[in-house]
Amino acid sequence: IASTTWFCLTDDALIMEGNIEGIGRISQRLSNHSGFSYIGLHPLQGDALVTVQADRSRPGTFISVHSVTNSISPNGDVGLYAMPVTIDVAFIGEEEIEVTAGRFLSWRFALRWHEDWPPADVWVQPHTHVLLKMTWSMIDNWYELTELQDTSNYS
Fold first, then answer.
1. Which residues contact 8 (CB under 8 A, 6 or more apart)?
2. Neighbours of 94 (CB within 10 A)
3. What is the pLDDT of residue 155?
4. Angstrom distance (rounded) from CA 130 to CA 48
5. CB 18 within 8 Å of CB 81
């Protein structure tokens, strides 16, 4: 394992403990007095969950979400410790899309992590916010859901 980190959000603080390759042992405590409303850790589903904060009654209008992420880089590979960031999120609309996992009704959002970066387009499953697809002109890649299993019968 190259790096490992642990994050804990309390009413007062965000606490991070880690051992990060190239940095070593690190401990952080960030005041939560202004209220972080989202912690965006770097699996793609983590990026999709910030869409919960968007105002779907105002399509195309960005809102700012006071957040903490573990990397502010296009590929999520720099830092890996707690970094405060404001993420701008806008609901774009409802669309039907097709990905490898099938055809889905989706909610489309735009996410902007940095004012001088173009927004990423993210399509999520309505209400659950499961990531269906993500494209971003900042990087030469796109991501899409390849399989979705119904687990409602599992106990």
1. 14, 15, 16
2. 13
3. 67
4. 7
5. yes
pLDDT digits (tens, 9 = 90+) for 74-118: 766 666 778 888 999 999 999 999 999 999 999 999 999 888 999
pLDDT for 82 equals: 83
Phi and psi at residue 143, to the nearest 5°: -130, 140
Backbone angles phi, psi at 50, to 5 degrees: -65, -20
Convert the pLDDT of each residue in 34-49 to its tens digit: 888 888 776 788 889 9
Task: Kindly state the tokens that stand for 60.
Answer: 């195309």
- Residue 32 Cα distances to 8, 40, 113, angstroms: 11, 15, 20
* pTM: predicted TM-score of the whole model, two decimal places: 0.85
pLDDT band at 126 (very low <50, low <70, confident <90, very high): very high
- The sign of the torsion formed by the CA atoms of 72, 44, 53, 88 equals positive
Write the DSSP assignment of 91-146 as a string of letters. Answer: EEEEEEEEETTEEEEEEEEEEESSTTSPPEEEEE-TTT--EEEEEETTTTEEEE--
